[in-house]
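Q: Please design a sequence for this.
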């Protein structure tokens, strides 16, 4: 604990608890989502380091950013997958709202409150598809938004790679990220993902 620091230990404990929730209670979606969450956490940690955002909070926010999807899956099962599965982010949020009266960002925020997560992590969860709506903690929100997009685009974590306009995303983001950095970032993210996956395997 002294070596790692309190926040690192707390975040690892939370991540281990999250793994349990995703992989034992989340059914098929939970397994896929857990890998995607590790992938997002891996990219987010690297982006945070380059942007003077806390890498520990970025890791934690990456792990739990889509927790709201588990709640929807738990409540609506296959129905949720039919409504939202395979849709691009913006359409998914709209579809969730229309069909279930809420969306996975809103439900993720409730989880964050319940679990007593730091405010900036809660803010990143509740705005990761609409970073412009976040007011107070833009740094971490932007890290999670871009990490989520890149993890999906690169297909890190076993999801099918998704077509995303990376150039536009990088230009629109206030992060300290350049297109030239992406190849190295992708390699390091994959390595980080492998290391994370190995360290959570039991
Ligand atoms: Fe999401
Ligand atoms: Fe995501």
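A: Design:
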């Amino acid at each position: 604990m002294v070596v790692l620091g309190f926040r690192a230990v707390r975040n690892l404990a939370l991540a281990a608890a999250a793994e349990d929730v995703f992989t034992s209670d989340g059914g098929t979606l939970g397994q896929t989502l857990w890998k995607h969450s590790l992938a997002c956490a891996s990219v987010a940690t690297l982006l945070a380091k380059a942007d003077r955002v806390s890498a520990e909070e970025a890791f934690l926010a990456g792990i739990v950013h889509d927790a709201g999807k588990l709640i929807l899956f738990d409540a609506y099962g296959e129905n949720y997958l039919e409504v939202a599965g395979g849709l691009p982010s913006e359409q998914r949020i709209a579809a969730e709202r229309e069909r279930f009266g809420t969306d996975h960002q809103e439900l993720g925020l409730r989880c964050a409150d319940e679990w007593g997560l730091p405010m900036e992590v809660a803010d990143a969860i509740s705005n990761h598809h609409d970073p412009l709506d976040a007011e107070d903690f833009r740094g971490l929100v932007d890290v999670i938004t871009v990490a989520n997009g890149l993890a999906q685009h690169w297909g890190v974590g076993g999801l099918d790679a998704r077509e995303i306009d990376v150039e536009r995303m990088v230009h629109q983001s206030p992060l300290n990220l350049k297109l030239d950095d992406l190849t190295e970032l992708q390699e390091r993210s994959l390595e980080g993902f492998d290391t994370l996956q190995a360290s959570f395997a039991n």
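Q: Thanks. Anything notable?
A: DSSP finds eleven helices and no strands in the chain. The pocket of fe (ii) ion (ligand 1) is lined by residues 65-66, 104, 128-129 (CB under 6 Å).
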